[in-house]
Design goal:
Blueprint: E1 5-7, E2 9-10, H1 20-28, E3 31-34, H2 37-47, E4 54-57, H3 64-75, E5 80-83, E6 87-88, H4 96-104, E7 109-111, H5 117-123, E8 133-135, H6 141-149, E9 158-162, H7 167-178, E10 182-188, E11 196-201, H8 202-210, E12 218-225
Parallel strand pairs: 1-5, 1-7, 3-4, 3-5, 8-9
Antiparallel strand pairs: 2-6, 9-12, 10-11, 10-12
Helix pairs in contact: 3-4, 6-7, 7-8
Length: 226
């Protein structure tokens, strides 16, 4: 009999947002697979809890050897909890590859809901009217533009989770494809006292980028023309 694979959810900034169920799962699980051992140990200290679980650090690129190792543990009737550094495991962070292989072996998969920076940013955007487009931004600039061109006629908000190194590329490609009148929202440090949200056109947002005002992991939302 196989164990249960659980995709956990931790806070995206404010530790008060972490759920009791997540804390209970950290304490009770047989095995916990984490994106960063250093950050997980800090999480334990911040929460003032301990766990007897076997801790495994997994690569963010979801290498097949790491996936197979976790699946083998599950097949040996151990329950495994996967945690990313922030937010939901399996959503933009390590997890989806583990789910796919686990399901191939008829292993049950569940998830613990919790904070998510994309949904939090959409909530305060004024654009969350039902449908939105979410994408992991391609690294190649030509791919970026081809991706954006697919939505050139849509009014649905387009959402990107960005590391600092791609913010300029996202904004420049958006300006080239959509023009300068598209509305843009930039959100960083969500749920924290330093939470910052800018609302302006894409062209105005680029000016903020060149003034070094946009320099953190962030959510960028491209919306209707102003």
């Amino acid at each position: 009999m196989a164990g249960l694979l659980t995709l956990g959810s931790v806070h995206i900034g404010n530790i008060s947002d972490i759920s009791f169920r997540t804390i209970r799962s950290i304490i009770d699980h047989d095995v916990i697979a984490v994106e960063s051992l250093e950050k997980f140990n800090k999480l334990l200290l911040d929460l003032e809890i301990e766990t007897n679980a076997h801790i495994i650090e997994i690569p963010s690129c979801e290498e097949i050897n790491a996936i197979n190792n976790i699946v083998q543990i599950l097949l040996n009737d151990k329950n495994v909890l996967i945690l990313s550094d922030q937010g939901n495991a399996g959503f933009h962070d390590p997890g989806s590859g583990y789910v796919n292989v686990a399901l191939m072996h008829n292993i049950k998969v569940t998830a613990i809901p919790g904070p998510n920076s994309v949904i939090t940013a959409l909530t305060v955007s004024g654009m969350a009217h039902g449908v939105f487009i979410y994408g992991c931004y391609p690294k190649d600039s030509d791919e970026n533009k081809e991706f954006l061109k697919k939505f050139i006629d849509t009014d649905y908000p387009i959402v990107f989770l960005c590391v600092p190194s791609i913010i300029g590329q996202v904004l420049n490609d958006t300006l080239e494809v959509f023009g300068e009148s598209k509305h843009c929202i930039y959100a960083q440090d969500l749920t924290m006292p330093t939470e910052t949200i800018f609302r302006c056109t894409v062209k105005e947002m680029l000016t903020k980028y060149y003034n070094n005002e946009l320099n953190r992991e962030s959510v960028i939302i491209i919306g209707r023309p102003t």
